[in-house]
Design goal:
This protein has two domains: 102 residues; 29 residues. 71% of the residues lie in helices and 0% in strands. It has six helices and no strands. The longest helix is centred in the last third of the chain and has 26 residues.
Length: 136
């Protein structure tokens, strides 16, 4: 059986133990499989496993892979999974993507830090603009 989920679990283990050359093609196959016609729950599981495998990969590959993972995010859904307040499996996927972008000690990478600073400034501008329109 050539199941991509099993391959991604193996890839995460290989990458975690430093065998990145064996892990890379398995992770790339997982990323490629996300473009296939999959049931929503399966796509979500594969995307999460890709994120977790990328999280223990070298930073350059993790950033490259997370960009590709982000490109399929519009296809991710948590259909037919309901919880009282949140779609927990989508939150788990988001956690996996965040782990791709942080280094092994959960320090934010330099490029992600710059992106977060820019996003924070944009949010602050919007809050300021919005608060000005309320008081006017």
């Amino acid at each position: 059986m050539n199941d991509v989920l099993i391959q991604l679990i193996v890839a995460g283990g290989l990458a975690g133990f430093g065998d990145h050359e064996l892990a890379r093609p398995l992770i790339q196959a997982g990323l490629q499989s996300l473009k296939d016609n999959l049931l929503p729950a399966r796509r979500l599981k594969i995307a999460r496993r890709v994120g977790l495998a990328l999280a223990v990969s070298p930073m350059s590959f993790a950033l490259e892979g997370s960009a590709e993972l982000a490109s399929i995010l519009p296809m991710i859904t948590d259909s037919y999974n309901t919880n009282t307040h949140f779609c927990l499996s989508v939150l788990h996927l988001a956690e996996s993507v965040v782990l791709c972008l942080a280094d092994r000690h959960l320090h934010i990478s330099e490029s992600m830090s710059a992106w977060m600073d820019a996003a924070e400034q944009e949010i602050r501008r919007e809050i300021f603009r919005y608060s000005g329109s309320i008081s006017a």
